[in-house]
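Sequence in, structure out. First:
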Amino acid sequence: MKKVIYTILLALFLAPGFVQAQEAAGAVGPTSSFPVVYKYDEKVTWYFDLSGTTFTETEDLYMWIWSPSEPDAGNFENSSDFAKLKYEGNKIWSFTLTPTVYFSKTPEEIAASAGFWFRIKNKNGSKQSDVASIAYTDFSSFYTANELIRSYPLKPTIDKPVSILFNSNLKDGFAGVPSVHFHSGLNNWAVSQEYQAWLPEVSEKTKLKDLGNGFYRMDLIPQEYYHTEPGFVMENITFLMVAKDWSTNSGDQIIYAGEFVPPPPPVFRFFPSQISQKDFLGMSRKNNEVGVNKLTYTITAGSKIISGEFSGGTAEIKGFVNLVSELNGVPNLTEIHVLVKDNKDKTISDTSIPLKTLDK
């Protein structure tokens, strides 16, 4: 706990000039990794949801990480190419690394550290995210758990990664086999990806990662691995772990899927419900799509045109237009026309709003 506190303090106070001088881009959203579980000396890709930040899709972004070590030390104002993130689309960026190599640390040293603490920044450091961390899932208990199969997460969903662990020591015949493969399907084999040893590309796709000492792991994202149609509802993953030559297998296995909960639809509104030209006009849009972090508006009031924008995140974008000052001196208005678009040029609202007549 002390290490974590110390790490955060370093980020906030060690370089106060940086923190005060930079533009705050906002908080890093949900993070994930592929594989879901991994050893510190394995290659892994981290994913960062930056839809709630002010970073734009065209910006080059970089990793500035200081725990377990600081690989790009001294280059805050000119990040190195090796620290550059890859843009994946929909305001998701990724960073691929082998932790022991990237941090020049042993697995034991990384495990004893405060964890992975970082900021996301632009090249020259003029814009940076809040302090964030990547959670690491320790799966070492599987080696002594006497379990044949374990999945991370326990109940996967169709659009998210899953790692499936296999202890071949608990089944006869796997000792010394050259490889183990994933013969599987969704919803009791309604959609399948069979292991076909005679097809090299299929053999490679279905091959489990050998973790050593009879332990194996399969990593996949169901909708990508099985090429499911849009809208397909995954109920379970049914499978066998099979030896390369089919001389032995794990027996029938099943992992039940978690409930896929679609995000709530966006909701846009003007408020208050009635306004005059001497009021503030509020706009709010909740449950925004990934990548939508800005609303632009154009208000036509007689011969006067007012334009501007509001920024926010996935949860809500909200702001007010001061009609009191903007429409001062504009006579005889009975309505205004308001056009609202998001930062992807999608029209959110195109409507006329009546104005209350004020008593003179």
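Second:
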Amino acid sequence: MCSYRLDAEYADPTPLKVRIDTHERYSERPDEPAAAVLAALALTGTEQLADIGCGDARFLAQLAASGHQGPLVGIDTSPAMVAAADAIPGVRGVFGSAERIPFDDNSFDVVTARHMLYHVPDPTAALRDFRRITKPGGSVSVVVNHPGTYPHTSELVAAHATTYGVGSAVTMTVDSDTLPEMMTQVFGDVRIHRSDNALVFDTPEPLVRFAEALFTLYGVTPNHPRRQAILTDLREDVEDWFTHHPGHTWRDPKGYIVATAVVEPE
């Protein structure tokens, strides 16, 4: 049974930051999901926008820094992430879940939900609530990964976690294969932008750092008594792989879709 808990995963923003930074630095091709979302939305800069599951709020910070004039709200179930949003000038952080968003109907011109719908017990209920809080004519944009993204690193972490009896990864309830139909049922027409890419590492350390940033997803919490032993064993395996594959890179396929819909009047 998986011991993953969402509150443990996002109590500390550091692992999320490591994952985001890894994608920025070690992607085979430029990887800019935020830019893909903005391209899909074609914002004017005056919209009332809510980012659901805002994480460390760097997307909202980017909007604020670009001169967005409309209200920007970051909604998250993690107090640390809400505080991160609140710390950004021009952004309001709000505690709340994706299935019961604490805003009235028709509150926002735009709703975004980036790389978070996997964590929601009932993704369809969340999509319905995204629609509820979006004004008629407004847009909802959702980003999810391809199924089995970076499989080699995931296998590595899972194997070491299992060796120590920690558990297995959380089962993702939605991905790029299943989201389009789910959104079609809630919104009608949906536009899809697909990105296919890979993480590429040519030295051990950034791979180890990225793998460690996945630990909580596999039940290896920051205070787990065997965490350091798991990390030590994993590091040895990674270093051994590079030793026995001179001149090779560790390449891990990944990708995502941006699914965007316009809310039609009821």
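Remark: Strands lie at 49-52, 72-76, 91-95, 108-114, 134-145, 191-201, 250-262.
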